[in-house]
Amino acid sequence: MNTVGEFYYRFGNYQSFLGIEFKIDAFSVLFTTFIVGLTMLIYLYSCGDATDGIYEAEYGRYYILLFILMFSIFGIIYTNDLFNAYVFMEILSLTSCSIISIKRKKENYTAAFRYVMLNEVGSLSYLFGIALLYMVTGYTNITLVFESIQSAWTVYPANIMTAVGFMIVGIGIKAAIFPFHIWLPDAHSHAPSSSSAILSSIVVKVYLLLMVKVLFRVFGIDILKELNIPAIIMIIAGFGMIMGSFFALAQKDVKRMLGYSSVAQIGYIVLGIGLMTHIGLSAAFFHIISHGLMKAALFLSVGAIIYYQRVRRIDQFDGMGYKMPLSMIVFSIAALGMIGIPLTVGFISKMNLGLAALGSGMII
Questions:
Q1: Which of 95, 167, 187, 303 has the highest Cβ tally under 10 A?
Q2: How does pLDDT run across 327-349, given as a tens digit for each residue?
Q3: What is the DSSP annotation of 281-338?
Q4: 252-304, pLDDT tens digit by residue?
Q5: Which residues, 6 or more positions from 149, have their beta carbon under 8 angstroms from its beta carbon?
């Protein structure tokens, strides 16, 4: 079914409230195009360096898992149904867990166990929110829920308020939003380098995109503002930016440092979402793309250094520019972008976030 600027596909030709519905619009096309392009570059890189530490018999399974991971990501972006999003989230969580543990080392198993346990808590929280919405609206289809939620809000405000809280917490755990980030540093530091790039630059961002869907396409700005959700989100974002940066500076392992820096950068994205303005949301989307590019470059360049030089500690990187100049050039440019140095893409995205915050008139 076509509408202006949107395309709906219903599996089995069932009505929206009965079947599975995919929605293709500018939002989904933009991010799937970005994800496909970035993933293709990461796959090309992984042909040389990604399999370090993985048994040869696991090579095939590793790449199959990566393709299943991408399938589930596209499902989350395209689906127009809250419960179907939950199903794709579960596939994504299990696949990510398998990728983290594929090296068969104790630290990998520990990181994978922590990841899957916390992510299941997030899944159950999200699912409980869906159940509450279904109780008061009778739908899980995002479009139909949005059409019904205003009338449901006047009759069942407590249910709606509880659903908002549980769904934000559930997605927040999966997106590693502070203070639900504790699984992220271990998972990203122990996974293969290409997987670390995908987890940090793509997977956690997909959950942030799902949060945008839930906040804006399910509940709507009016209900969120009545519940003071923007203020709560921005407080969380502020703590995430500060504490993520603080923890990153305290690390000695370079991949753990990059993992904690993602927590800080996720805070910037959450700030843009919490502004609840068109400019703020556009700035958040731009930072999702810019951070995805920069963090992929950082993890891949560090992965090459670890593979060829066998070093992970930051104090062992002295003189690395002479040994691996290309990798260090890529690393340096991406790191400057993460900081927000002028003339880098990171500066542009953070400047846009700052302007959006100033334009909103809210105290941050």
A1: 187
A2: 888 888 888 888 888 888 878 88
A3: HHHHHHHHHHHHHHHHHHHHHHHHHHHHH---BGGG-TTHHHHSHHHHHHHHHHHHHH
A4: 888 888 888 888 888 889 988 888 888 888 888 888 888 888 888 888 888 88
A5: 133, 136, 137, 160, 218, 219, 220, 223
